[in-house]
What we know:
Blueprint: H1 2-24, H2 27-40, H3 50-70, H4 74-98, H5 115-134, H6 145-168, E1 198-207, E2 210-215, E3 225-235, H7 256-260, E4 265-270, H8 279-294, E5 298-303, H9 307-316, E6 324-325, H10 328-334, E7 340-345, E8 348-354, H11 368-407
Parallel strand pairs: 4-5, 5-6
Antiparallel strand pairs: 1-2, 1-3, 4-7, 7-8
Helix pairs in contact: 1-3, 1-5, 1-6, 2-3, 3-6, 4-5
Amino acid sequence: xxxxxxISRILLGLVFIxxxxxxxxxxxxxxxxxxxxxxxxxxxxxxSFSLILSITLSVAEFLIGVSLLIGLRMRVTAxxxxxxMSFFFVLTxxxxxxxxxxxxxxxGDAFIITNWQTFYKNxxxxxxxxxxxxxxxxxxxxxxxxxxxxxxxxxxxxGSGISVYCYNHLPIMDFRPYNIGxxxxxxxxxxxxxxxxxxxSTLIYEKNGVTKEFTINNFxxxxxxxxxxxxxxxKKGYTPPIHGFSITTKADxxxxxxxxxxxxxxxxxxxxxASKVLPKQWLEILKYYxxxxxxxxxxxxxxxxxxxxxDQIKNNHKLAFDFCFTDExxxxxxxxANPGLVLLKDGIVIGMWHYNDFPKPDYFKGNIxxxxxxxxxxxxxxxxxxxxxxxxxxxxxxLMGMMGMKRR
Length: 408
C-alpha cells in the first residue's frame, strides 16, 4: 500500500502540474474558454472576471500538482485535490451530456480531447484523489510546517509569475495552430483519406396548425409548409487545425488566397476588438503602415469589429488605412494580443509580437528573415533554459524531501 500511495500521489501530481502549466502559459486561451461558457450559460456579467479566474485556476492546478508531487501539507492538499476533482467531475459530466462546446479546454491547446474523453479521464483522477484523501494521515511530512508553507508560497508565486508574464507578452510555449513556422494554407486543407463531421438533418413542416418532423429521406407532400431545418452532429470527423479563417475587405471582397500566396512580406495587425485598442497603439500601427508603403510591403489590419464601428474608429484616430474583416474566433486563436502583429511571407508565419513587444519599424530594414529568425532562436533558447530550470528545481526539492524522510 505504501508504494500505491506514492504512485497515486506522483501520477495525480504530474497531471495537475501539466494541466496548470499549459493553462498558465496561455492565460488568454482560458479567458476565451471562460467567456464561451459564460455566454452559453447566460452569465455574461461574469466575463469581466475571466482573466482572474484563468490565472487562479492555472495557479491552483499547478500548486496542487507540485504539492502532491513533493508531498507538501498532504492533509490540506488531499482536501484541496478532492474538492477540486469533485467539482470538475460533476462539471465535465454535465458538459459531456449537454455538449455546449466541443473542447472543455482542460489541457489548453496542448492536448485536445473530446468532452466524453475528458469525463472518462476524470473518473480515473477522482479515484486517485479519493484514495489519497483516505490515506492522507499516512503520508509523512516533507519538512517542518514553516518550510512547507514557504515552498507553497514560492511555487504559487512561480505559477502566478508565469501567467502574468505570458498575458503581458505571448505564451512561452505555443501550441496554437498559427505558431511560428506554420504554413497556414496547409493547415486549412482537408486530407482526402479522412471523414468530415457527419450531421443528421431534421425538417420541420406545418399543416393545419400541426407541426411534424421529417427526414431528408421522408419528405411530406406539397400540402405541408416548411418551417425550419435542424442539424445534429451524429459523428465527429476530422477538423483541419485551421478552419473558419478568411479575410474580406470593406467591399466584401475575399482576399484570403491573395494574402496567403503573397511572396512579399505582409505586416498583419490583429485587432480582434478594435474598440479596445488604445490611441498610442494606433499611432504605432500607423507608423508601420507608412513604413510598409515606403518599402513596398503589404499591410493589413484584421478585426471582427462591425464595419460601421471600424469606420468610426478610423475617423476618430485619423487612420490612413482600411480595416479587413475576419472571424472573431480565428483572430483570438491567431494571436493572444489585442492588438498583435503577425509577419507573413508566402502564407508562412515568420514572426509574431504582442503589443508590449512591438519592435520599431526600422527593425524590419535589411534582411528581414535573418533578423527575425535570429531573434526567435534566442528567445527559444532562454525559454528552454527557464523551463529546464523550473523542472530541475522541482526534482531537486523532491530529492531533498525524500532524503529528509529517510532520515526521519
